Amino acid sequence: MKKYLIVLLAVAALLPLSHACLSRTPEAETPDGATYDPASVTLEIDCPGMEPVTRALDPSQEKAVHDLNVYFFSKQFPDDIAEHVFSDGNTSRVKVSLFPTNYDLYVIANAGRDMGEISREKVAAYSATVGTEQELTRNDRLPMSARQEVRITGNTSLPVSLVRCVARLELSLNVTEALKGHLLLHSVQLCGAARSCSFFSDNAPSETNRLDYPKQTLSGDSFNGSYYLWENMQGVNSSIADQKQKNRVNAPAAATCLHIEASYDGRKADYYIYPGANATSDFNIRRNTTYSLQVNILGISEVDTRVSTTELSVTPFPATSYAPGETAFSTLSTRSTHNPDGLFYLTYSIPQGGGTLLIDGAAHTPGVPFLFAQGGGKNAQIAYTQQGEGPARITFSLTDTYGFTIDKEIGTTYKIPYQPIEASLSDPGTATVGVPCVFYLSFSEPNYAGPFNVKYELLEGTGSLTSTVISRWSSGTTVVFDKGEQVRLGFFASEKGAVRLRFTVSEQNGQSKTVEQTIRISGKSVRAYASWDITGYEQHTMLDSTERTTYRDPCYLNVYAELSKSVSASTTVTVELHYTVDHRGFYGDTYTRQVTDKVSVSIPAGQSSGSAVARQYCEYCYIDNESYPHVLVIEGDRIEPASGEDMTRIVSASCSDPNIDITY
Description:
InterPro entries: DUF4906 (IPR032594), TraQ_sf (IPR038707). Residues 1-20 form the signal peptide. Residues 223-295 form the DUF4906 domain. The chain is an all-beta fold. The chain has 4 domains: 17-24 and 165-310, Sandwich (Immunoglobulin-like); 313-417, Immunoglobulin-like (Sandwich), CATH 2.60.40.2410; 422-521, Uncharacterised protein PF12988, DUF3872 (Immunoglobulin-like), CATH 2.60.40; 525-663, no CATH class. The protein contains 3 helices and 51 strands. A hairpin with a 5-residue loop joins strand 31 and strand 32. The model is unreliable at 1-38, 51-55 and 302-308 (pLDDT under 50).
């Protein structure tokens, strides 16, 4: 979390440059947001300004956030997305509800669309591509991102500082008085800008993944312009010891440079200036950074480069929260190179919290600058004390003698250290559709005597909930209890399957506890039975006989299905029959055969029994007298149960009401 002030003298090819100045200022920061239970999180979105001086956009446009894609990924379950929020309205404050745990937070700003739920890998590897500089500032907005690790333990406001994915390059070009009328400026062009950018990792494009901005025609002896460009991290060439060696020969193939075309008394001159963190070996263009190049052309083949850096950092407070009256300590550091006479003035403010701040044990008036450091650098102890509860936010501004300002912010939360809420649900055991399932919700908090709010949510399944304090507790509503207690609950399920209930218990100190219960609901149980009989129309032979002169034709093998109680829906019972058919026919057509049949019996809604005909046949008949001893006069069948087996067996049963289970 650094900020830089850099003074650089640029490198030229032919004509000399007097004094060139480069200032580089990463504005983003990632403070640790203070969190505590309950898990209702408000993201306070901020975008520090890019300074100073000339811009293609004004300060409000550079800081404008038109839409946000926010992703939380749980560290406990790395393959799951915990939460995705898209906001194209209120982009300065986003609220989200999370379970207390550790998360990786990713924010993509000004994507121009709802990116939807995507995996951690795709978010971490997210990149964007442009074809022109204008696409970077389309609709007067800049692409931004933020990534930080957060621990959610309760309700909190989480500061999130967005980082612009682009750098701004400002060029101020002047011809010295001695060369005016001899040296003419013709054009300037930004070459080798990155075409695409990875939002959450260093961006180092290949030589083929770059683009040149359009050439700008110049006239006169001066030029001032600004460019926005993606980050381009091309590294350091440590073999360059002199600024004059920072040229096209020694530069990385994919490095970004400014090409200035000029003429001197009819001769063409080309200047290739490579921005970076220093005037010699560094070829990195970092995101969220302003590079200001002030180039004065003095004469032929003369380039003068000097580098001065200033860095400001502040360590996060070590604890996520503090008790009112407790002092939080941090360290504020500044470091400057190649600027032994530099004077740095510090100003601080406390936008949130209203506490008191000591810097190295001394009190200073907020908003009033004082001399903080001179020359190389300084470390100072920060001591912050706040008496009331709530978030605390402190901003620091370091200004050099040229008026260039670096901003830094730190924050934490003050709260009374309460004991956590204790909440639990008893095991309801087994449950049946339409039968109340009884269980108990218990909640309390040590050393707390105030009321509790209990919110009930039916997350899965259907049914109604009753309790001892409310006859019908609707999902999504909250009931207030004067104190902690054990509440008797009854759930009436309207269909079988899984039912999932959630109860969120909260109290006046801002704490909450969530408990869930999953109940397996079975259908109403109805027993099915099967039986059989044989009926028919009795017939008589025409001849007198002493035996079997009576038979039935037609004859019916009937199957019956019966339920233990009537149900409100139709039921189908499939019965398997095992029986023996004894056949007698004329001309010796006689046999005995084992038969297995399946018959479906329908039971109408509202009734408890039904029947079906399994087989229709005619019984055979013999006569036996002096004239016709044992003579077959009617051919047909006789049916008997198979030996040693039950004649009927239910093999399946189903009801059109899915909440009724038919057993057999």
